[in-house]
Amino acid sequence: MKSDSMYLAFVMVLFCMLVSLFAQDEEQKKPQFGWKKKVVGNLNLTQNQFDNWTTGGENSWSWQLELLADFTEDQKNYNWANSGKLFYGRTKLGDQEARKAADEIKLESVFSYKLNEILNPYISLTALTQFTAGYNYSIDPKVQTANFMDPGYFTQGLGMLYKPGEVFKTRLGASVKETVTDKYADLYAGGEKFRVEAGAESVTDLSIKMSELILFTSKLQLFSTLNRVDEIDVDWDNLFSAKISEYINVSLNIRIFYDKDITVKRQLKQTLAVGLSYSFI
Hints:
This protein is mostly beta strands. It has two domains: 1-30; 36-279, Porin (Beta Barrel), CATH 2.40.160. 11% of the residues lie in helices and 59% in strands. It has two helices and 14 strands, in the order H-E-E-E-E-E-E-E-E-E-H-E-E-E-E-E. The chain has helices at residues 2-29, 185-188, and strands at residues 34-48, 60-74, 78-93, 99-113, 119-129, 134-136, 143-146, 152-162, 168-180, 194-209, 214-225, 232-243, 248-258, 267-279. The chain has a twelve-stranded antiparallel β-barrel with strand order 1-2-3-4-5-8-9-10-11-12-13-14. Strand 2 (60-74) and strand 3 form a beta hairpin. The longest helix is centred in the N-terminal third of the chain and has 28 residues, at 2-29.
C-alpha cells in the first residue's frame, strides 16, 4: 500500500513536471503579437592626407550615412510591415569638387491578411527617389541627370504573399507603377512627365544569418508591363554585413539595376564600407 502511494505520488509529480515543461514550450512557441521596431544607423568615414610623399598620392575624403528602419505590426489575423532606407554620402579626390557617392530614399509598406500560415493576400506600396542632384561627370562640363523626385517611382501591388518562415518570403501580383519626372523626362519616362504602367510584380526577400556576427540579406524586385512582358525591370539589392564589435560594422553592398527605358545595359553599384553602427531601437 505504501509502495502504491509512493508510486502514485511519483507519477503525479512526473505528470506535473511534464505539464509544466509542455506549457513552457508552448509559451515559447506562442507568437508574440504587437509592434516590432528597429532603427539602425551606419556612418562610414575615410580620409587621406599627403605632404611631400615621394611615392605619390592625392588627398581625399569620403563619408556615407545610412539609416535603416523597420516597423512591423504582427497580429493574429494580419501583418503590416513598413521599412525605410535612407542612404547618402559624398566623396572628394584631390582638387576635384566634392561629388555624390551614394543617394537613395526607399520606403515600402506591405499589408497582408493571414488566410493560413504561409500563403496570404497582400496590398503594397513602395516609393523610390534620391535626396539631391546627380551628375554625369564623364562629360565635360558635367551634365545634371537627376534631382529630388526627378525621377521618383511609386508602385502599388495586389496579390499573394508566400512566407514559409522567417528566412524567405516572396510575393507575386498585379501592379501599377508611376514614374514622376520633370527636367529629365526624356531620360527616365520616354518624354512623359508622369507615366503610368500596369503590369505584374514579383518581390523576394532573403535573410540568412550565416553566423552570430554575419548576416546576408537580399531583395529582388521584378516588374513587367502588360504590353511588354518580355522586358523585365530588375532591382536586385544584396548586402553582406559583419559585426566586428558592438559599434563597428563591415558591409559589402552589391546592387544590380536594369530598366530598358533608361539604358539597354545593366547598371551596377558596389560599396565596401567599414564604420560605426548604432541601433536606436
